[in-house]
Structures are given as structure tokens and as C-alpha cells.
Design brief:
The protein is mainly alpha-helical. It has one domain: DsrC protein, C-terminal domain (Arc Repressor Mutant, subunit A), CATH 1.10.10.370. The protein has 5 helices and 2 strands. A two-stranded antiparallel ribbon has the order 1-2. The chain is globular. The chain starts with a strand and ends in a 10-residue tail after the last helix.
């Protein structure tokens, strides 16, 4: 199993490079993961998407798709792609400490 060291912690990763244990996640780790994804700062809009994803995952056991993000998170499609370029649902899930959404390639 692949690992990643962030903030002095060694974290296990799944086959897609996301955290294997979502309980290892915290806001400091999210900021570090975002930096690795080329997102230097997490704005309130980033956090709105991240918190929405974590909330849906907590209730349903799967991260929401891009379609659901744009319909229910309060962030429109254009903004979502600006916040999380090159695959917003996949990148946002990684930063949120969640597995890749099932609909993502």
C-alpha cells in the first residue's frame, strides 16, 4: 500500500492515491493535499464544496458526482472548474479525504 507523509503523519493511500482512512483527514491535511494539487489556498468556496462532499459521503457512503456538486453544493459548474481544475469532483474528493467518486474516470 502506498503512503504519503503530511504534517509529520504517514498516511495510507488507496489505489487512486486518495486517503485510505478518511478518519486520518483534518483541515491541515486538506490544505497540504490542496497544495499538492496546485491549489495554494482553500477559500470559503473550496470549503463549501469539501464540506458538502464530506456530508454526502457521511450520509450515503459515496462522494457526490460532478452533476450533484453543481446542483446541490451552491457552487456552479464554471466556478467548480476554477476552484478544482482538471477534474473537480475527483480533486475535491481527494482534498476532502474521500475515495474517488464512482462516476469519475
Amino acid at each position: 500500500m502506498e503512503t504519503l507523509t503530511i504534517a509529520g503523519k504517514t498516511l495510507a493511500l488507496d489505489a487512486d492515491g486518495n486517503l485510505a482512512n478518511r478518519n486520518d483527514w483534518n483541515e491541515e491535511i486538506a490544505r497540504e493535499l490542496a497544495a499538492q494539487e496546485g491549489i495554494p489556498e482553500l477559500t470559503p468556496q473550496h470549503w463549501a464544496v469539501i464540506n458538502f462532499m464530506r456530508s454526502v459521503f457521511e450520509k450515503e457512503g459515496d462522494a457526490p458526482s460532478i452533476r450533484r456538486l453543481t446542483k446541490e453544493s451552491g457552487v456552479d459548474t464554471k466556478t467548480l472548474y476554477q476552484l478544482f481544475p482538471k477534474g473537480p469532483a475527483k480533486r475535491a474528493a481527494r482534498i476532502a479525504g474521500l475515495p474517488k467518486p464512482k462516476g469519475c474516470i
